[in-house]
Amino acid sequence: MSNPSNYVSPPRYQKDVNIKGKAITDDYKDIWKVLKKLPDLPALDIAGAEGFISHLARKAGIRDVTCIEIGENKIKLGRKHFIGIKFICGDIFSHFELVRKSEIFIISRFFHNIGPEWSEKLMEALNRPCIIVARHKRGDKRENGRPRQPLAMRRGVVKLLEKYGFRIRAYGDTVLAAKGEKYESCLAD
Q1: With contact defined as beta carbons under 8 Å apart, do 43 and 63 qualify?
Q2: Residue from 133, 128, 82, 124 nearest 104 by CA
Q3: Distances (CA, A) of 114 to 29, 42, 82
Q4: Model pTM?
């Protein structure tokens, strides 16, 4: 089994506006809404790229945020622009010790990048009372008209999370999932 590292860089515009300008564009409004609902608990942003969503989590009131990303250049850019986030260069599958230290997990459009087998391995590590914030792509088809992979879409992400006993609430392109009485209160309006 090879290591999942199929990440595609965001477009330059996104880096300039979101990372350098720290602006919450339309693409991030749903996750911003969800992050503001969360309690101040240790959070791990898995495959968090430059850390923009980690930055949003801090801005929403989560003080202890760690971002793990395999791309060294993305980590360097994140460290340059976002203060107060712990950045770790590496892949989550080599750093499962971080899972034990966190209660909130942010997974942005990652499941379909690593595929079903690795997604199952990740979920086995997260299979305990906690909160998961997972972003997915909108719609059944990609921009080129071809069908999306199941784990790229809401129904695939929801099915995966429900398999592990998480309760779900959907907000646009973001799924909020919780397991355990301590955490499920974040699902209420």
Answers
A1: no
A2: 133
A3: 25, 24, 26
A4: 0.90
